[in-house]
Design goal:
The protein is of the alpha/beta class. The protein contains 8 helices and 7 strands. Strand 6 (about 165), helix 6 (about 185-200) and strand 7 (about 200-205) form a beta-alpha-beta unit. The N and C termini lie far apart (about 50 Å).
């Protein structure tokens, strides 16, 4: 069999979990979460921490940096110019980008989440609001593929030797146009099974946001948080990371 033929068969046999989701969009992030100075002064004497996740994690990254000032260098993926934070999207995008995000830096702690983008229903015919449509849209990443992708991501991150912390996916509120209430619990349960097998602790951000009870969300049916909400999330994230630091 020719090399070209073998490569073709390998591509055809590649699992769905490694392909881009059919309806995946370029991740979007609220402007308020990307605004302002995102520069980081690295202290070579401090341990390095990596935060991976979607716009929710972008929202709390600066609060984590402030809380851990003098204790750790807190990184997160940035765009090619290094001028704005990169949204890690769904778990399919995570599998595609994890090697780049891990790079060759020595990580002491990695705090990570994927979920909100995975459980989103999208309809390409609805260009507004990121194609979100839980009535006529297609699920971005199935629960089964999500679990398989999280397994791949955990396996890749474990190779760094860093201490890993899983952040449970935050609350899907009533009225969200592209996400179904309760799917956050299902996807968190699937991730929890992976974490249990790998003995990875959980930072339960879902439980925290349930306590918000309508407060600290940027609007009705919106999964994003106000500055105050992001500070509260960042405080909990920082505390979990602090306990894991060498």
């Amino acid at each position: 069999m020719s090399l070209t033929r073998r490569r073709t068969l390998m591509l055809l046999a590649a699992p769905l979990t490694l392909r881009a989701a059919d309806n995946a969009n370029t991740p979007t992030t609220p402007k308020k979460d990307t605004a302002g100075d995102r520069s980081l002064t690295v202290d070579g004497k401090l341990p390095n921490v990596l935060i991976l996740g979607d716009s929710i994690s972008i929202g709390y990254t600066r609060a984590v940096r402030k809380a851990l000032a003098g204790k750790a260098n807190v990184f997160r993926p940035m765009n090619a110019k290094g001028t704005a934070p990169e949204n890690c999207g769904d778990s399919v995008m995570g599998v595609a980008g994890i090697a780049k995000w891990l790079g060759d830096r020595k990580w002491s702690v990695i705090h990570f989440n994927w979920g909100l983008w995975d459980l989103t229903y999208r309809d390409p015919a609805k260009p507004k609001s990121g194609n979100r449509d839980k009535v006529n849209g297609k699920l971005s990443v199935t629960l089964e593929d999500y679990a398989a992708n999280i397994e791949k991501l955990v396996t890749a991150m474990e190779k760094t030797g860093a201490k890993l912390i899983w952040a449970s996916t935050t609350l899907v509120p009533e009225g969200e146009s592209g996400r179904k209430v309760g799917d956050d619990l299902k996807y968190n349960a699937a991730a929890a099974a992976v974490m249990s097998r790998h003995k990875i602790p959980t930072d339960d951000l879902h439980a925290l946001t349930v306590q918000f009870a309508g407060k600290h969300f940027t609007g009705a049916g919106n999964v994003h948080f106000t500055d105050e909400g992001s500070v509260l999330l960042g405080a909990q994230v920082a505390e979990h990371i602090r306990k894991a630091l060498p």
